[in-house]
Every structure is written in structure tokens, then in C-alpha cells.
Design a protein that fits this description.
The complex is a heterodimer of chains A (459) and B (195).
Chain A lengths: L3 H9 L2 H23 L4 H17 L1 H14 L3 E5 L2 H14 L4 E4 L3 H6 L1 H6 L4 E4 L2 H9 L15 H12 L8 H18 L2 E4 L3 E3 L4 E6 L3 H8 L2 E7 L3 E2 L5 H8 L1 H4 L6 E5 L7 E7 L3 H5 L15 H5 L1 H6 L10 H11 L1 H4 L11 H5 L6 H15 L5 H14 L1 H17 L26 H14 L1
Parallel strand pairs in A: 1-10, 2-3, 2-4, 4-7, 5-8, 7-10
Antiparallel strand pairs in A: 5-6, 6-9
Helix pairs in contact in A: 9-10, 17-20, 21-22
Chain B lengths: L2 H12 L20 H11 L3 E5 L4 H8 L6 E3 L16 H5 L3 E5 L2 E3 L4 E5 L8 H4 L2 E5 L5 E2 L2 H7 L7 E5 L4 E2 L7 E2 L6 E7 L3
Parallel strand pairs in B: 1-11, 2-3, 3-6, 4-7, 6-11
Antiparallel strand pairs in B: 4-5, 5-8, 9-10
The chains are: A alpha/beta (459), B alpha/beta (195).
Chain lengths: 459, 195
């Protein structure tokens, strides 16, 4: 598999497209800044949200039990899945028991993580993603490249071509309103046909036993409320203690994405409709393991708002697909190595460690610190000596004594003058690809200092 | 061992041993505008239309504002509408609804959102499936911010509730904002006319 660096290089080969992507994503960041600046209590809410999430992680077992008890009392069927496969099996079983072959699904990173669509499609169940961006990439057979804007990497002409092919829209008509209306008509049919609606979950409220789903398009609520079975797939870390905590979290989750002060729809599902059934599947799939890693556990506080993606200079200029992971961007780069260090060990290096991600995180995850800590772990596991390490080790004797440093300096200054630049800066040298050799100074700093200090005294 | 027990056991083994307590409630600063004004401003920003209606003006308003709406379902006593109970259980009739008139339980000034609970909805899909949504908001029911709304809700006994802050929208095609994704194409907030 290609590494992030290789995939980023492929992405950057089309310079115009890379610039367009960078600017698009940076617009999200600017909108976020404007909105956040207009909320005087922003920092108070961030701190409270971070504290609440810390508190939940330290009491997660109790809150999950409370959540289960209250949801069950509400008439909801609660299921537990240790891993992705079990999650998929449970969904399939619910569908089978109800003889359902057509399903609509709203946006859910968890079902992406579990590869639910593939699992169900292999068992002759039609799964239609109903978020517009999700539907686009489903038709294009791609992965989402962004947490809240899954098709952000595509241009309108590409969507137009895709819709012409699948939805028979006019050839060459790339007007976003026209294309959106076409998708609306197409998906209306699917909503009316579907027998089950599947959603992700943004928040599960322990004290009331309900789930909250945040959307703009209205697709989650159409899907769930037209079907006879509703299934909500929820990572165990999505728990919050009280209904009133939503007063903070719902205000923190949207600004980071594209500067929205609020989502259009914040839906609170507690009980099934009369004559229908409601299921909540609580999924672990590696989360308890991450909880056991003291240095990385607070990555579980993430509410998937995408603020860290939008602010990251590396994400903006390498695109979501370069992370070859369900969760891209800085948050993905700290979550994914916990799932599979071998497969995702390149991701913590896809960062400048500038810290912008931590600054914008609405629940105060120390993302850049964790990126750094993953690097330590990954480098320790690499037994071979890297060229950088080798160079530093071999230069150690020269740094140990002032006189040997002086001699080495003289030698290097001479060498810099004599050596042909091409020998360092050719195409095949990784070092020279983005670097130049310095001009050799006339003398060492020590010599310069001696000379000028003497000069000063004379004045 | 069931997955439930496995997960709970793994949490107990792995969770941090020291727990912080829940933070104190935030003492929010006062917003720059009084709730009614703030609500009006924010609903406009969300893409809603704002109108004022006097008790006798309803029919004229519907006729003028929604001339092409034939299937009207009204859940407010002032307007009769022409679709009734028979609509609720039938997907095809639901899909043909043009306009829903409904009262909000609460409105939130800071977000410009309105709260509708199960008690007002004969079937939950109504506010999502109609082409146009008109919501009646009484100024007495406007709270300042979201936390004030939750202070009004009882955690036990919740069934279904929806916060709606405008017509459905999307920007999934090249970040171009399109009003009217899967839910309503328009949302109007109606308030009593000020004498």
C-alpha cells in the first residue's frame, strides 16, 4: 500500500487541483474563525466539554449501563458489538428478522469504519447512502475524503458526469442546485421504498437513554421516520451524562466544520414510534484498547467536527484520501495507529506539528502532542538505523571537544566551496529535493566573535 | 462471556483510575440583543422568512404566500387545511404534502432554532417530508440559548423532539449552498403581529 507521503505526491501532481482544494478547505477554517469569534463563551464551553468528556471516559462503564437501562425502559433494543464484524452481523440479523432488503442510511463514520455497506450488499441488501456527499461517493465507489464533506475533493463537473451516468441528468449541466434537486428526487424514491433507516449517532444521553443526530439535509430524519425499523450505530465513546450537556456540545460541534452556528436538524430519539422498532448498537471495535493507552485515550473525546482537518496545512495540501484511512486528517492520524500500527504508522508523520489542530479542537484534544508521542513509539520500533540517526551519531565525536569542532568546521567550510552542488542536489537525493546547500561563511562564529569583541573594546 | 460483559470489563480494566467530577454549570454572559430580536436575526441568517400575522389574516396569508400549495396540513387551530388524519399513515399522501403549519413548543434565540416535541406531531416525519414549513412561534416561548431550552425539558419520559433551524440545506457539491436538500425547501417563522 502507498504511504501518505506517496499519495500526497500523487495528489500534488495536479497543482491547480491541489491549490483549489487548499483554498476550499481554508474557506471552512475562515468561516469557523468568524463564527467562533462571535461566541464570547466559546472557551468556557470548550473547557466544560473537555471536562465532561474526561469525566465520561473515567466512568464510561457506569454511563453505558445507565444509558442501556434507560434506553431499554424507553422500549429501545440495545445491542453490544465488540468489533466491526459483530456490529455488521447484528445489523444484518435485525434486517433478516424483519425481512428487510432495502435500507437507507445517513452519514455515519462508524459504519464506514465497520464497512457495513459491503457486508450488507454481499448479502443482497440494498444500502443507499442518503447524505448528498455520501451518495456521490457511493456512486463513484470512493471513500469519504472529509468527515463532514465526504465529496469535498470532487469538482461540480465530476458530479455532473456521475449524475448523468447514474441519475440521467442533462449532460454537461453542472449547476449545483440542478444537481441537488436531481438527487433529492432520486433519493425521495429510496426514502419511500426503504423498510429500515440506519443512522450514526452524535451523542447518546445516559440519563435519558436517547440518541441525538445532527444533520443539515433532513435525510437522517426522513429515513428513520418513514421506515418500520430504525437502527442507530453508536461508538461507545459517544456517551454524555445529561440532556443539559447538549446545551454545550450541540453548540461546539458545528462551527468547526464550516462555521455554522447550529445544524439545521438536531433530532432527539428516545422511544420508537407506535408499531415500529428502534435499535441502538453500542460498538467497541478498538475503543476500549485506546482507553487503556494513557497517552492517547483522550482522542476518544473526539466529536468528529472536522475542525482539525480544515486547519491542518498538511490535510489541506494532501487531500483526505492520502491518509488511506476511514478517519483522515490530524484526528485520524492519532486514532488510526491505535487500530493498526503497521498499516497506519506513516500517519503521525503527516504533520508539521504546528499545533493548529489542538488550538481549534472544541473538546481540547492535545492532537499535536499525541502525533509526537506516536512518532516516538514508531521510531523506537524501527530497529534499523535511519540515515539521519547515523549522521548524528557519526558527528558526535566532533561535537564533544571545542578544538575538534573547530577543525571539523574548517574542513566543512572548505568542502562546501569545493564540492559540486549537483552531487547533493540531484533528482535522486531525498535530502536535496527541497533543500539547498548554504554558502560557506568566511570564518567560524567563534573566530568572528573574537574579532568583533576586540573591535568593541577598541571603541 | 457476552460482548456486553467483555466491553464493560475492558473499560473497567483500562479506564483512568482517577476521575474528575462534572464541571459546574457555565455562567453565560448576556447576549448583545434581547431574545426576541436575537431570535429574529438568527432565523433570518438561517434562511428562514419572518412574518407577522394577526388572528384574522391567516387565510389571506396562506393564499398569498403559498399559491401553488394544494395539499395543506394544518396543526394550528386558526387554519383549517385540507389534509387530515388519513394522511398520517400513508407514505404516498405524506410525500405529496405541500405545506405544514405547526406550533413550536420553544424557540432558541441564540441559534434561531425551534423545538417541536412528539406531542405536537401526529407522525414524526411531517416536518421533514413537506415542501414548505410554517412554524408559529409565540414570543413568550423564546429562550435565550440552548441550555435554557434543556432546563425546560424533563430527562425522564422524553420520546422524540426536534430542533429545526431553517430549511434543509446542503453544500456538498463544490461548497455551493443549496437551500432545499431532502427536507423542506423553505421555512417561515410566523409571530403575532405587534399592535
Amino acid at each position: 500500500m502507498k504511504s501518505h507521503a506517496q499519495l500526497a505526491r500523487d495528489f500534488l501532481a495536479d497543482e491547480n487541483r491541489a491549490d483549489w482544494h487548499n483554498e476550499t478547505i481554508y474557506t471552512f477554517r475562515q468561516k469557523r474563525d468568524t463564527t467562533v469569534a462571535s461566541i464570547p463563551e466559546w472557551e468556557l464551553m470548550r473547557q466544560a466539554a473537555s471536562d465532561i468528556k474526561d469525566h465520561v471516559l473515567a466512568n464510561l462503564d457506569q454511563y453505558l449501563e445507565q444509558f442501556e437501562a434507560n434506553a431499554t425502559a424507553n422500549g429501545v433494543q440495545v445491542h453490544w458489538a465488540a468489533d466491526a464484524l459483530e456490529h455488521n452481523r447484528i445489523v444484518h440479523q435485525i434486517l433478516q428478522e424483519n425481512r428487510i432488503s432495502r435500507v437507507v442510511k445517513s452519514k455515519s463514520m462508524l459504519t464506514e469504519e465497520c464497512k457495513l455497506n459491503e457486508y450488507l450488499e454481499a448479502r443482497d441488501i440494498e444500502v443507499v447512502d442518503t447524505d448528498l456527499g455520501e451518495r456521490i461517493i457511493q456512486l463513484k465507489k470512493e471513500m469519504p475524503s472529509h468527515l463532514i464533506a465526504p465529496a469535498v475533493h470532487l469538482k461540480r463537473e465530476e458530479v455532473s458526469k456521475l449524475f448523468h451516468q447514474h441519475l440521467h441528468t442533462e449532460k454537461g449541466n453542472a449547476d449545483p442546485t440542478y444537481l441537488t434537486r436531481a438527487a433529492r428526487a432520486h433519493l425521495r424514491e429510496k426514502f419511500l421504498e426503504a423498510e429500515a433507516g440506519i443512522t450514526g449517532v452524535n451523542f447518546g444521553v445516559a440519563e435519558s437513554g436517547g440518541v441525538v443526530i445532527v444533520t443539515n439535509e433532513g435525510n437522517a430524519d426522513l429515513g428513520v421516520n418513514l421506515a418500520k425499523v430504525q437502527i442507530h450505530c453508536m461508538g461507545i465513546e459517544k456517551i454524555i451524562p445529561r440532556l443539559e450537556d447538549l446545551g454545550i456540545f450541540l453548540r461546539l460541534i458545528t462551527p468547526g466544520a464550516a462555521g455554522q452556528r447550529t445544524a439545521i436538524y438536531n433530532a432527539h430519539y428516545h422511544k420508537p414510534r407506535t408499531g415500529t422498532s428502534m435499535h441502538i448498537i453500542l460498538v467497541d471495535n478498538g475503543r476500549t484498547e485506546q482507553l487503556g493507552r494513557a497517552d492517547f485515550r483522550n482522542s476518544l473525546k473526539c466529536i468528529r467536527c472536522a475542525a482539525c482537518l480544515n486547519t491542518c496545512p498538511v490535510y489541506r495540501r494532501s487531500g483526505g484520501h492520502s491518509y488511506h484511512a476511514t478517519i483522515p486528517g490530524p484526528i485520524g492520524a492519532i486514532l488510526m495507529p491505535g487500530k493498526d500500527l503497521e498499516a497506519y504508522g506513516d500517519l503521525p508523520f503527516a504533520s508539521t506539528l504546528c499545533g493548529a489542530c489542538s488550538d481549534v479542537c472544541p473538546v481540547k484534544i492535545d492532537i499535536h502532542q499525541q502525533l509526537y508521542r506516536w512518532r516516538q513509539i514508531i521510531l523506537e520500533k524501527q530497529h534499523r538505523l535511519s540515515p539521519k540517526k547515523l549522521l548524528l551519531k557519526s558527528s558526535l565525536p566532533f561535537f564533544r571537544r571545542a578544538s575538534s569542532l573547530e577543525t571539523a568546521g574548517k574542513f566543512m567550510r572548505q568542502l562546501l566551496r569545493l564540492i559540486p552542488r549537483q552531487s547533493f542536489l540531484h533528482q535522486k537525493s531525498i535530502w536535496g529535493l527541497h533543500r539547498d546547500l548554504p554558502d560557506a561563511p568566511k570564518q567560524s562564529f567563534a573566530a568572528w566573535y573574537q574579532q568583533n569583541k576586540a573591535h568593541d573594546k577598541q571603541r | 462471556m457476552t460482548s456486553r460483559d467483555k466491553i464493560l470489563e475492558a473499560i473497567r480494566r483500562n479506564k483512568p483510575q482517577v476521575a474528575n467530577s462534572l464541571p459546574e454549570a457555565i455562567n453565560f454572559p448576556d447576549p448583545a440583543l434581547p431574545p426576541l430580536q436575537l431570535f429574529r436575526e438568527r432565523s433570518l441568517q438561517n434562511g428562514c422568512a419572518l412574518i407577522e400575522v394577526a388572528p384574522n389574516d391567516w387565510q389571506a396569508l396562506i393564499d398569498n404566500r403559498y399559491p401553488d400549495c394544494t395539499n395543506i396540513l394544518s396543526l394550528i387551530p386558526e387554519v383549517e387545511g385540507n389534509c387530515g388524519r388519513e394522511t398520517y399513515g400513508d407514505k404516498t399522501s405524506l410525500a405529496q404534502l405541500d405545506l405544514l403549519l405547526i406550533k413550536a413548543d420553544w424557540a432558541v434565540a441564540d441559534s434561531g432554532g425551534i423545538w417541536i416535541s412528539d406531542q405536537r406531531l401526529p407522525t414524526r416525519v411531517l416536518p421533514f417530508i413537506v415542501r414548505h414549513l410554517l412554524v408559529w412561534v409565540h414570543p413568550d416561548n423564546i429562550v435565550t440559548r440552548l441550555s435554557d431550552l434543556y432546563a425546560q425539558l424533563e430527562p425522564a419520559g422524553q420520546s422524540f423532539g426536534i430542533l429545526i433551524a431553517g430549511p434543509s440545506k446542503t453544500a456538498d457539491i463544490e461548497q455551493s449552498l443549496v437551500i432545499g436538500a431532502h427536507g423542506p425547501l423553505s421555512m417561515t417563522i410566523a409571530m403575532p403581529a405587534i399592535r
